[in-house]
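Treating backbone geometry as a discrete language has practical consequences that deserve illustration. The amino acid sequence and the backbone structure tokens for this protein are reproduced below.
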Amino acid sequence: MDWTYSDLAKMIDHSLLNPTTTVADLEAGIDLAITYDVASVCIMPYYLKRCAERLAGTTVKASTTIGFPHGGHTTAIKRAEALRALDDGCEELDMVVNISQVLTGEWDYVRNDIAAVVEVAHTAHQKVKVIFENCYLNDTQKIKLCEICSDLDADWIKTSTGYGTGGATLEDLKLMRKHAAPHMQVKAAGGVRDLQTLLSVRALGVSRCGSSRTREMLDAAREKLGLEPILPATASKPANSQASNY
């Protein structure tokens, strides 16, 4: 095998974004992320500060969403969300493009909207993932977004919110990797639910995956590597575990 447990764990942004998730579920999710040593916890903005406090001293980053899930917030509001998130300890911002303006073809607006959040994050020496929501777009629109994000030096381009009509596809991931600048990373979200899919997207050059199925995938990875299992008592599944497609 050409991968280690850490290689896979550090691909995962553990998703805690379902609106029905309780505080107890959020705390359990943070526990799980720490125990499995994933890349980040992507959490609802209102709980971000607590999450960042919990993750301090670990190798797991605190992340949250901007303009989520529809992208229709004004640019000023997205910028304000980003500033507040950074003040609350966010290290990675997952922002949604203005899908309406993408579909309308108002590319100057789209560019300026993305640039506002990238500028705020990079000024604070933090990172941005730009969410396209590919299920609503054609290939020409996806390629244009890849080009804009490359020009703006976004850190990642990302397929989906997990709350649209579809998630990551292998075809979209290939297209995004092909048309993004070499320095820009690609994140898959929506549909990466098992170890085989995680390995498949990794082979395409994907460096991150948003997932609410973290435990299942990483337990399978540990079993395949012959590692001791992580006991459920130290990373229990949230009681309210309705998973999104994230």
